[in-house]
Protein: DNA-binding transcriptional regulator YhcF (GntR family)
Organism: Mucilaginibacter gracilis
Amino acid sequence: MEFRNNEAIYLQIAAYVSEKILRGVWAQGEKIPSVRDLSVELQVNPNTVMRTYEFLQSQEVIFNKRGIGFFVETEGIKKVKLYRKERFLQQDLPDFFRNIFLLDITLDDLQARYEKFKTENFKTE
């Protein structure tokens, strides 16, 4: 994972974990990697992963079974979507709108690209 300089690493790791949950890689009620395992995988300090997990616990995305590990909350997917949606609407969307305005990109252009993106990247059932 490559980290960006404009955002705290623990929040970037939270986005990584959230995406795994949204994509169903880690299902609700399922155990997620330990702090140590994820820190090795991402090559970060275990304290950073612990801060990420504490943040996700406060968002009610994951929970800790003492001595066993961290698990995805029953409503974890719903909580991730709410958090990520609000964050996107507050932080990313204004820049996106500015760019499409400045570049004269139409909604039809966006719709066509979006449909192509979905087809190429996500299987729909």
About this structure: The CA atoms of residues 61 and 76 lie 4 Å apart. Residues 77-121 form one domain.
